[in-house]
């Protein structure tokens, strides 16, 4: 299921400082948005407000409805909206257990749940590490586990906060493939990043937080097919 998320007259204030005031914004369905802005302008704060993790000083985000699963999973407070932190929290357990956590309350047979988890791990290239404890993973592998955990929930909206920071090439391309799969199924994504990369190239809309408000514009890009093929070949050659 896909949803449309709307924010109206959303403001965030810290004491006397107004971080931002956004009259309105809308996400989705099936949108890819690049959120940019200087350090400290409130990109992470805005994503957390949209995810229901922070309450704005004023204004509202609709829909308001919540589910038990949404509150349990990664602290998400809004239905079908998942916030993926730059340094994701992983539970003390195996790679498989971390990904399976997101769907443990879904009404699926055990073998169907396992198939979902393995499919997610295969997409991020970690199926061979399913039984490994998360403590042995690299930073990039942990981010891929977090992405797989989000993917199995099939969120309507995935909010990705600096997802490619300090990741190697393979990890970035794995995240791209998973984000593309979500978009192909009607989900929306919002990505923050300090620099353009393979993930931001998926975006067709830009939000820019500047002068304490949000400027929205289309983001027209020409995809370098040769580069995309080279990146795909890179992943394929390193998956054996």
From TrEMBL:
Q: Report whether Amino-acid biosynthesis shows up as a keyword of the record.
A: no
Where is each ABC transporter domain found?
5-235
Q: Which UniProt keywords apply?
A: ATP-binding, Nucleotide-binding, Transport
Q: Name the Gene Ontology molecular function terms of this record.
A: ATP binding; ATP hydrolysis activity
Which family, according to UniProt?
Answer: Belongs to the ABC transporter superfamily.
Q: Which PANTHER family match?
A: METAL TRANSPORT SYSTEM ATP-BINDING PROTEIN TM_0124-RELATED
- What is this protein's name? Tungstate transport system ATP-binding protein
């Amino acid at each position: 299921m896909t949803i449309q998320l709307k924010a109206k007259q959303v403001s965030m204030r810290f004491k006397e400082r107004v971080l931002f005031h956004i009259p309105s914004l809308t996400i989705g369905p099936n949108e890819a948005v690049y959120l940019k802005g200087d350090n400290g302008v409130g990109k992470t704060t805005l994503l957390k407000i949209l995810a229901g993790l922070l309450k704005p000083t004023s204004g509202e985000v609709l829909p308001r409805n919540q589910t038990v699963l949404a509150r349990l999973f990664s602290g998400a407070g809004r239905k079908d909206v998942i916030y993926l932190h730059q340094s994701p929290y992983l539970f003390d357990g195996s790679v498989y257990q971390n990904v399976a956590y997101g769907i443990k309350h879904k009404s699926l047979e055990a073998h169907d749940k396992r198939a979902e988890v393995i499919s997610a791990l295969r997409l991020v290239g970690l199926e061979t590490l399913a039984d490994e404890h998360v403590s042995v993973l690299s930073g990039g592998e942990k981010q891929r586990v977090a992405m797989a955990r989000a993917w199995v929930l099939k969120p309507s909206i995935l909010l990705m906060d600096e997802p490619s920071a300090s990741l190697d090439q393979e990890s970035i391309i794995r995240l791209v493939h998973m984000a593309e799969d979500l978009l192909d199924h009607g989900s929306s994504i919002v990505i923050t990043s300090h620099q353009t990369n393979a993930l931001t190239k998926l975006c067709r809309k830009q939000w820019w937080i500047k002068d304490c408000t949000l400027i929205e514009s289309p983001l027209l890009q020409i995809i370098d097919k040769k580069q995309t093929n080279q990146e795909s070949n890179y992943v394929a050659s390193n998956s054996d």
